[in-house]
Structure formats: C-alpha cells, structure tokens
Amino acid sequence: MALLGRKSEEERAAKAARKEQERAEAEERKRQQAIERARSDFFDSPAGKARVAFESGEQLFQCSFDVMSQQAIIVAMVGSRTSKQTSDPSDILNSVCHEGWELVNGSFVFVHEGSQSRDKFMSSGQNLAVKGSTVGYYLFRRSEANRREVSNPWETKEALDVEVAEMAAEEQQVATQGAATAETPTSA
Asked: Per-domain residue ranges for the chain?
C-alpha cells in the first residue's frame, strides 16, 4: 500500500501502460479516419467515379473539372486585371484512362461568374475585369485494353501519411481559430 499518497511501482507501471494503450488506440483511430478520408476523396475524384462506372458495366463515362480559374481585380485609379490559376489535366485524364477508359472527346467552356467595372481615371471609358473558370468536359469510351491494376490510394503508406498530415493541419487550424475567437472580446 502506498504511503502518504505516493504510488507504488505497480500503480505507476499500470498508469503508464494505460496511457500507452490510449495513445495507441487514438493513433489507430486517426489512421482509420485517414483511410476513410482517402477512400472517400478517391471515389469523389474523376478516377474514382470512372472506376465505379467501369465496374458497373457502363459503356460511356463523362466527367468535367476546372482547367483554369480567373479572378477579377480592380484597383481604383490604376486599372483592372485578372489573376488566373491553371491546372494541367493530363494527370487526371491519365488516371481515368488507367481505370479502363479511352478519351473520345474533350471540349472547353468558359463559365462566367461575374465581372467588375470601373470608370477609367482621367480618361474616358471603363476598365472591365471578368471572373470565371474554364471547365473541361471529357467523354470516354470503355476500353478493356486501357485498364491497369492500380493500387488503391488509401492502401499506400505515402497517401495515408499525407492524409494524416492534412488532418493534423486542419485540427491545428481549427484550434488556432478557436483560440483566436475565444480571445476576441465581444461587445454587447
């Protein structure tokens, strides 16, 4: 029996073992969440949707995704411009082809999401900046010859490490935002 509130060696060892078991269980829960998140992300992607369509026996598969996004920027008394972000669709298209599809057709549409205009400074006319995105629409035909045995992203250690790191970063961001919100005084 412990004297004066001190724990015996057995009690300390039991407490350490409980902590280690709780840590291992928490890590396993986090790993399972990362697997489920990677699995969900894959099946929400064009390649994941292509796999589902192939396995259900579909003959055609169509998908679309943003190829370029453009933001309108107006600066008073200076003018207007746009900033754009582009992505190379080759990786996405190849991943769909590896699921057993052959690209038949691709087309692009600019989706206008808005525009901003201002009168020009010290001259006539207006500055106009357009906001929108270019969307690629792709049609695929079933092609058994293109089907490759590819690993599931949720089964690779690298993908899981990335998912765990992303989840930890999101948790940290939420904690930081929560702390900032708690520190912000509220006025009545």
From this structure: 40-148+156-165
